[in-house]
Specification:
Length: 243
């Protein structure tokens, strides 16, 4: 009876993370492909850099978009000039819009971390990506999430890109030392309401001895300039540092 119970549980729990693709998709350099990676995660959009080959383990950007925006890799295709990085556009885990307590929010972030880890593992079976070269990225709502994941679990990423957002300040002091030497880019529009929060986040990560670049997009509000010279240089330098 005990064995039957275990089998029954597995039958109903595991399919949420089961891999639905019987035939693996073809990844073509310079192209993007939309994948369904399971019920728990849903759709992701993956861009393969133009210089991709199987002789090297590549860095990957895991990107969360802004609220109401669709899956897209375009901003990071522009910022990286289409080279050097696999780009993965992630969807948010479904959640209610009601205000969360700290405990509820941290539980939500843990679920996002679990889903991100699953997608990364899924792609590692099909692409040459290196876990130690993960870049956590986000814009607006996605930027807040990326910064919180990075601060709460620094071991998940070598770098972070936080745009039009800040940092919630909920990581324990024990994690701050793990951010030393990691690369962080933070950008916000000149008139963005989140610019003060972005600057505060930059100060926090600098206090943790991370290598921080702060950028202001001239003439913009709550929006990103993917052609920012500082952003493009940051990615270029990061790619060299990750070799």
């Amino acid at each position: 009876m005990r064995l039957l119970i275990v089998v029954w549980i597995a039958a109903f729990v595991l399919p949420a993370y089961a891999e639905p693709n019987a035939v693996y998709p073809e990844f073509v350099p310079g192209k993007e492909i939309q994948l369904n990676v399971g019920k728990a995660v849903g759709e992701v959009l993956v861009y393969i850099p133009t210089d991709y080959n199987d002789d090297y383990n590549w860095p990957a950007i895991f990107y969360y978009h802004g609220a109401g925006e669709p899956l897209s890799t375009q901003r990071f295709q522009i910022a990286t000039q289409g080279k050097g990085f696999v780009v993965v556009s992630m969807e948010f885990t479904p959640t209610t819009d009601k205000q969360k307590t700290l405990t509820q929010y941290l539980a939500y972030v843990e679920l996002e971390i679990k889903n991100l880890a699953f997608v990364r593992h899924y792609l590692q079976k099909r692409l040459k990506i290196n876990n130690k070269m993960t870049v956590l990225a986000g814009v607006s709502r996605g930027g807040w999430l990326a910064s919180d994941i990075f601060a709460l679990r620094p071991q998940l990423g070598a770098a972070a890109v936080i745009m039009c957002a800040g940092y919630s300040g909920w990581a324990s002091e024990n994690t701050s030392s793990s951010l030393a030497g990691k690369y962080v880019y933070i950008g916000a529009g000149e008139t963005d309401q989140n610019r003060p929060a972005a600057k505060k986040a930059a100060n926090y990560f600098e206090s943790c001895n991370a290598d921080v670049t702060f950028d202001v997009y001239a003439g913009l509000g709550h929006n990103v300039d993917p052609n920012s010279p500082k952003l493009k240089k940051w990615f270029s330098d990061l790619r060299k540092n990750m070799k």
